[in-house]
Every structure is written in structure tokens, then in C-alpha cells.
Task: inverse folding
């Protein structure tokens, strides 16, 4: 029996173990390696008793064959979440960065790239399952048996305590907090207090304490007295009103997460936390920046999106020269930043904030032009001025833009701006969010410099070419979201979200299909543009004849006869036509593409199918 079959047999016919072992051995064609794997599996299983233990050993085979030590740590970390938990990809990578599993000497984008590489490795080895979460975001899950295997490892070395999502009402007993414990996860429970008789007394190696999502109201002073190595403290989404002064004892703390602590109104002095790199105070109720923040010069990530915050002390930001991520609440008019305070932040990559006026914004842009680094993501708020966003330096590198509360802005960018620039604005942009812009009437404004309303100017081909999401809310003057001539650039657009835009009539500009057809012909981006009118009286054979005529099928085209045969011929011809656009105009009801002979469009071959319709039930 071939070695491969013996390996499958050694997996006891269990689909999960077969998949995981296969993922580990994927791409390996050396028979000796397979024989060695078979011998290793037999040896592992021979050392344990019981079906459950055997399954764990088979799955551990994949874990032990991870060559990257970082990947092993990243995988084991996934156990801190509750069973069957949907772990958002971005959040998980952030956690890996916080834990130090990913080298943090580069840019934040580089760190995220390394995190994605590790995720891919774990997915390829079938240790994590790639999913889309219930909120529509990219994420991962651990199979129950894989999680059991990982927990069996963390019960030994490295030592974890994981009681996440178990509806616990109190801390684990003091005896469970052994001196060699490195990480403790009690997230998403019902713990309300920390009685003195259960507080741990010997946690000399503890580096991570996760209490997120518990309704605890107070942290006792003594909790942090015996945790000299603690580096990550997550108290997010708890009901705490303050932190004890003993937080200053955590000399090795690098990450303090208080996100969503809506009862938190004050913090003690943080000046002793000299190693702190990340501070998240999103949606707390603090009114003042914590005392001593100007001493935390290693900070790289600050989230101060706090509606109640009254001011930013002058001179604070220029001292935090290592910041890569900085967020303020753009709706909080009390926090209006000055460009001179931002200028020293050369490493800033992600920024959310508000400038007092256009003058301060222009100074900020000027400082960006002098910087070797550039923002890749920003959300900005302003007074009542229009910001010429196309003029921002290196705008082709921006991935996410949010525009909030600008009373005077009428468009995101004008076509005359394209004409005066050799660059391709927004060519890397993936997410565009527009909120509460009462005078905004166009995404791209066509003006006198680009011709009359009957002409169809072209934006640079790369502009918006990577755009995936558009969100527009409370833009009361917007009537048409996307001009029809921008359509060829939007091949990657996946989601459009519109809310409370009372004047919005059209998502796609109501140009006639003839205009769209002519525009596509002028652009010469497709080898063939086929335009067919469907109309109310839909007839399969008529549509087939019209498409065949556009393809100039004559001798081989059966004018009458079996519709299935005609559909097969048409489908074959369309597949071999090359890069083309097929416009089905004025569709009144659902059309079976297969019945007509229209193959499903594939992004890989560059072909497009466009339908114009009067009914939302067609698509």
C-alpha cells in the first residue's frame, strides 16, 4: 500500500485530521519525507491512550511542523478567545503586534504585512479557517478539536489560563494562578468584582491579562502589585470608573487597552509607564488627557476618540515622535489641532482628527510634503471650508479616506484637477466614507474646464481602480453618486452603503446606455463593446440573434432551431471573444444568462456584463 494511503489510514479516517495533516504535507513530493511523517504519526499515537488523546496528537503533528517559532506563538494566542469565536483578522494582527510576536521595528503597514503572512501560513496548514464574520469582515475561526489541541499545549508550555466566554462570575481560585503562568484570558464573562481572598499573589511571569467584556466596576489596588512582567492589560468594555494608582507598578507595560469603558472618567498619572507603546481610550468619558503622557515617548499608537475630551495640552504631540497611529473624535469641536503640533510626527501612518480651518490643514499638508513618510489612511474633520483633497501629497498611496462634517465641501475632487496633474489620484484607495456633508453634490465634479454636460470626460484609468467600499450618510445635496463615465474604473467595487441622503435619486448617473456604449468605445479599453436592448417583451431567440449579429456570426449561426444549441455556440464565441463588455439595456425582468448563452463574467479575463433596469428585483 502506498505511503500516502498509510498516512491517511493513520489519521483514522477522521476528515479534520486528514485535512490538517494534508495541509502540513502540501507540496511535499519526496517519498522519504512522507515515510518519515508516517513513522512520526505512529510514534505519537503509540504514546497515548484514548480516542481524544490520539486526535490531539495527530493535530499536534501539524503544529510541531510549523518551522516558524513566531507562527507557533501566533497560533497558540488564538486560544484566548472563546470557543467558536469569530476573530476579526485586523484585530488579531493588532494583538500579535501588542504581544511582540511580530517585529515592531518597521512601519505599521509592514507589521500588518508580516501578520498576514503568518495568517496565510496557519490557514495553509489548516490550523485556522478563513471566514467572513457576521459583520462582513475578514476573520478566522479555530475548529473545536484544533482549539483543544492548542489548549493542551498551553496547559504545559507556554502556560496559559483560558476561561473565556464561560459566564464566570468570579476569578479563578488563587491556587490556579501558578508562578509560571504567562497569559490569562477571562474575556467575555460576568465577573463583577475581585474579592481579596482570590486575588493572585505570585504572577512573576505573567505578561498578558485579558479582562475585556466583564461588567467589573472597580480594580483593587493590590491586583497589580505582583505582576512585574505584565506587558499587555486589556480592560476594554468593562464598567470601571477609574484605575488604581498601582498601575504605576507595571514598569514593563507596553499596551493599555481601555476601549469602550464608558464609565471611565479619570486616570492616574501614567508617567511611570515608560515602556508604553499603545494606549486605547476610545469612547471613554475622560475630560482630560492623562497626566504624564508627555513622558511616554515610546508611544506608537494612541486612540483618543473621546467625545468628552476638552483639550489637548500644547506641546504634548511634538514629544511623541514615534507615533504611527493617532485618533481624535472628528465631531469634537473642542479638539481642533494645529499643524505645528503635528509637524514632528514624521512616522504617522493613520490619522483621525479635526483642524480648525483650511489654513491649518494646508500647513499640515505642507509638512507632509517635507516628510519621507506619508499617511496611508486618514479621517479628517474641518470647519466650513472646502479641502482640495486631490492636492494632498502622495494621494495615490492613500488606502482609506473618511470625510466628516465639512459644511462647505461640494465635491471630493474635480475633473479639472485630473487634467492639471500627471498623477493618478486615489489609485490605491479602497474605502471612501462620506458623512454629514450638507453641500456635497458630486463625488467627482465636472466643470467648465472639462466640457459641457453632454460630453463624457474620462478620469485617469487608475483613479478609484482599487475602490471596494463607498459609504455615504447625511449628504443632503447629493443627487447622483457615481457619474456613468466613471464606471469602467470601478471594477473592484464591492459595496455601496447609502443612508439619510434625502435628495439622492441615482447611484449611477442616468446617462443613456447609448452614452455608456459610446464612452466605452472611445476609451478603447475593451476589444469589443456589445450593446443589446432587451425591452419589456423579452425573447430569448431575439437576444441571441442580436448578440450573434454584434459578434458578426453568419455561416455558423443557426437562425432557427434548438435554443440550447444556439446558447452553446454563443457561449463559446463570447468566451473566445477576448476582453469585452456586454450591455443588456432596459431589462424588465430576471434574465437567465445560461439560457441565452451568456457565460458568467470572470474578473480574471477582464470581461464585464452590465445591465440597465427599471426594477430592483432584476439583480
Result:
Amino acid at each position: 500500500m502506498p505511503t500516502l494511503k498509510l498516512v491517511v489510514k493513520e489519521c483514522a479516517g477522521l476528515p479534520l485530521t486528514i485535512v490538517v495533516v494534508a495541509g502540513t504535507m502540501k507540496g511535499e513530493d519526496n517519498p522519504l519525507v512522507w515515510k518519515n511523517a508516517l513513522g512520526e504519526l505512529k510514534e505519537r499515537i503509540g504514546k497515548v491512550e484514548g480516542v481524544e488523546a490520539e486526535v490531539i496528537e495527530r493535530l499536534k503533528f501539524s503544529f510541531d511542523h510549523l518551522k516558524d517559532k513566531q507562527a507557533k506563538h501566533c497560533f497558540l494566542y488564538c486560544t484566548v478567545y472563546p470557543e467558536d469565536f469569530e476573530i476579526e483578522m485586523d484585530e488579531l494582527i493588532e494583538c500579535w503586534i501588542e504581544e511582540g510576536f511580530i517585529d515592531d521595528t518597521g512601519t505599521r503597514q509592514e507589521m500588518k504585512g508580516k501578520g498576514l503572512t503568518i495568517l496565510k501560513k496557519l490557514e495553509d496548514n489548516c490550523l485556522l479557517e478563513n471566514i467572513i464574520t457576521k459583520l462582513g469582515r475578514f476573520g478566522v475561526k479555530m475548529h473545536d478539536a484544533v482549539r483543544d489541541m492548542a489548549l493542551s499545549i498551553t496547559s504545559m508550555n507556554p502556560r496559559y489560563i483560558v476561561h473565556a466566554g464561560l459566564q464566570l462570575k468570579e476569578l479563578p481560585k488563587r491556587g490556579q494562578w501558578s508562578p509560571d503562568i504567562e497569559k490569562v484570558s477571562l474575556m467575555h464573562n460576568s465577573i463583577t468584582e475581585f474579592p481579596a481572598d482570590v486575588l493572585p499573589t505570585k504572577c512573576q511571569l505573567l505578561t498578558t491579562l485579558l479582562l475585556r467584556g466583564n461588567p467589573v466596576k472597580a480594580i483593587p489596588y493590590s491586583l497589580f502589585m505582583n505582576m512585574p512582567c505584565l506587558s499587555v492589560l486589556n480592560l476594554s468594555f468593562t464598567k470601571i470608573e477609574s484605575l488604581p494608582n498601582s498601575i504605576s507598578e507595571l514598569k514593563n507595560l507596553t499596551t493599555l487597552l481601555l476601549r469602550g469603558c464608558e464609565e471611565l472618567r479619570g486616570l492616574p498619572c501614567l508617567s511611570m509607564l515608560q515602556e508604553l507603546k499603545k494606549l486605547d481610550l476610545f469612547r471613554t468619558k475622560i475630560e482630560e488627557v492623562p497626566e504624564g503622557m508627555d513622558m511616554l515617548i515610546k508611544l506608537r499608537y494612541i486612540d483618543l476618540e473621546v467625545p468628552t475630551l476638552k483639550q489637548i495640552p500644547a506641546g504634548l504631540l511634538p514629544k511623541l515622535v514615534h507615533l504611527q497611529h493617532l485618533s481624535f473624535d472628528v465631531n469634537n469641536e473642542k479638539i481642533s489641532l494645529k499643524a505645528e503640533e503635528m509637524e514632528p510626527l514624521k512616522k504617522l501612518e493613520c490619522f483621525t482628527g479635526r483642524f480648525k480651518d483650511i489654513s491649518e490643514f494646508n500647513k499640515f499638508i505642507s509638512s507632509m510634503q517635507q516628510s519621507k513618510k506619508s499617511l496611508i489612511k486618514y479621517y479628517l474633520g474641518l470647519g466650513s471650508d472646502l479641502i482640495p483633497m486631490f492636492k494632498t501629497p502622495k494621494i495615490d498611496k492613500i488606502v482609506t479616506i473618511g470625510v466628516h462634517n465639512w459644511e462647505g465641501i461640494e465635491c471630493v475632487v474635480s475633473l479639472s484637477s485630473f487634467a492639471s496633474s500627471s498623477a493618478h489620484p486615489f489609485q490605491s484607495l479602497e474605502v471612501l466614507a462620506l458623512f454629514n456633508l450638507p453641500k456635497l453634490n458630486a463625488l467627482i465634479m465636472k466643470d467648465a474646464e472639462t466640457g459641457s454636460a453632454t460630453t463624457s470626460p474620462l478620469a485617469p484609468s487608475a483613479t478609484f481602480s482599487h475602490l471596494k467600499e463607498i459609504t455615504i450618510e447625511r449628504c443632503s445635496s447629493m443627487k447622483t453618486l457615481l457619474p456613468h463615465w466613471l464606471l469602467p474604473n470601478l471594477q473592484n467595487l464591492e459595496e455601496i452603503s447609502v443612508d439619510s441622503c434625502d435628495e439622492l435619486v441615482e447611484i449611477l448617473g442616468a446617462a443613456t446606455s447609448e452614452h455608456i456604449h459610446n464612452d466605452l468605445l472611445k476609451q478603447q479599453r475593451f476589444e469589443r463593446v456589445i450593446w443589446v436592448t432587451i425591452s419589456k417583451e423579452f425573447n430569448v431567440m431575439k437576444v441571441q440573434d442580436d448578440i450573434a449579429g454584434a459578434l458578426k456570426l453568419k455561416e455558423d449561426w443557426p437562425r432557427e432551431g434548438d435554443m440550447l444549441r444556439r446558447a452553446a455556440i454563443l457561449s463559446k464565441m463570447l468566451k473566445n471573444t477576448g476582453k469585452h463588455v456586454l450591455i443588456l439595456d432596459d431589462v424588465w425582468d430576471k434574465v437567465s444568462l445560461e439560457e441565452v448563452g451568456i457565460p458568467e463574467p470572470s474578473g480574471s479575463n477582464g470581461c464585464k456584463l452590465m445591465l440597465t433596469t427599471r426594477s430592483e428585483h432584476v439583480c
About this structure: DSSP finds 15 helices and 24 strands in the chain. Residues 384-395, 448-456 have pLDDT under 50 and may be disordered.
